[in-house]
Design goal:
The protein is α/β, with parallel strands linked by helices. 40% of the residues lie in helices and 18% in strands. The protein has eleven helices and eleven strands. Helix 1 links the parallel strand 1 and strand 2. The relative contact order is 0.17. It binds 6-O-phosphono-beta-D-fructofuranose. The site of 6-O-phosphono-beta-D-fructofuranose (F6P) has 9 residues, from loops. The site of 6-O-phosphono-beta-D-fructofuranose has 9 residues, from loops.
Length: 326
């Protein structure tokens, strides 16, 4: 690979608080090293359509505190086809973009990886997803902010739940991963938590709720949207016949979890990883994700980061027992 002169970067998949801090860091670091930073709008779709913007210091002024992504994001159908990827590669070549930084989750990394395999465009991944479902990093950009959003919401729900002696089922995001559910349950003092990584047994859950609720004014059950028995609405329908005499309510936090001002942690993580990503490309590296472990910025191969079988153990048995023990 020759010397890098232009780096293209984009946000892709579900947005996450802290993505703007990453964009800012990439632009500033690239300019610092004399590289031209090209922002690609609207993810892989924008790449296919050539939605490129050469960026300067002023373009990233006053964005570090903003949620969402100033570049926009998308889940692209066209990029899943070889023709779409050919168009994307043609656009990148036309603009003389030498390398890419993709800020997104596993699907976005897989996209950049296939583009590399088919068209030899080097890339580095920054984990940008509230789900934290990438192997090899202690946290992904956006995860900490989303956890804080959930905990704040549950605190508020607890107030009204206690006033009315109610049991609330609060649904949080996490199609395939229980990180958000489990850790928000711990931090909000929830009575139970349901995550995709474990099998939910409805009669047992009902019994646990009864035991937990004895002498209490409220109970909070955190439900990951991807639980094997369904989201909070379905769980409530299934558990209701076993909980005669209890008042059950459902709250789905939905996309409130994806927005909002990024926390200190996400801004710092995004900034440190953005700087490192540019430096990795300058050193001729490709195909890795920038992560954080024990406060050290590290790299993991993309294959490993998205490999399902590598999903770290959540230590769920231990944590669940703690949550469920009255
Ligand atoms: O960003 C990941 C995620 O938040 C998942 O937890 C959720 O299922 C999904 O995105 C929803 O995304 P969208 O509504 O953008 O399709």
């Amino acid at each position: 690979m020759g010397e890098i002169q232009k780096i293209g970067f984009f946000t892709s998949g579900g947005d996450a608080p802290g993505m703007n801090a990453a964009i800012r860091a990439i632009v500033k670091t690239a300019l610092h090293y004399g590289i031209i930073p090209i922002g690609i709008h609207d993810g892989f779709d924008g790449m296919i359509q050539g939605k490129f913007q050469q960026m300067n210091y002023n373009d990233v002024d006053n964005i570090i505190h903003l949620g969402g992504t100033i570049l926009g994001s998308a889940r692209s159908k066209s990029f899943r086809t070889p023709e779409g990827r050919q168009q994307a590669a043609d656009q990148l070549h036309k603009k003389n973009i030498d390398a890419l930084i993709v800020i997104g989750g596993d699907g976005s990394f897989a996209g950049a990886n296939i583009l590399f395999k088919e068209h030899k465009i080097p890339y580095i991944g920054l984990p940008g997803t509230i789900d934290n479902d990438l192997y090899g990093t202690d946290a992904s950009i956006g995860y900490d902010t989303a956890l804080n959003t959930i905990v704040r919401a549950v605190d508020q729900i607890r107030d009204t739940a206690s006033s009315h002696h109610r049991i609330f089922f609060v649904e949080v995001m996490g199609r395939n991963a229980g990180f958000l559910a489990l850790n928000s349950a711990i931090a909000s003092g929830a009575e139970s938590v349901l995550i995709p990584e474990t099998i939910t047994n409805i009669p047992e859950l009902a019994q646990e709720i009864k035991t937990q609720n004895k002498g209490k004014r409220s109970s909070i059950i955190i439900v990951a949207e991807g639980d094997d028995e369904g989201g909070a609405t379905e769980i409530v329908e299934k558990v209701r016949p076993h909980l005669d005499g209890y008042e059950l309510r459902t709250t789905i936090l939905g996309h409130t979890q994806r927005g909002g001002t990024p926390s200190y942690f996400d801004r710092a993580l995004a900034t440190r990883s953005g700087i490192y990503a540019v430096e990795q490309l300058i050193q001729g590296k490709s195909g890795s994700m920038i992560g954080i472990h024990a406060d050290e910025i590290i790299t993991v191969t993309i294959e490993k980061s998205i490999d399902d079988s590598s999903t770290p153990n959540l230590n769920k048995e231990f944590l669940l027992k703690k949550l469920l023990t009255k």
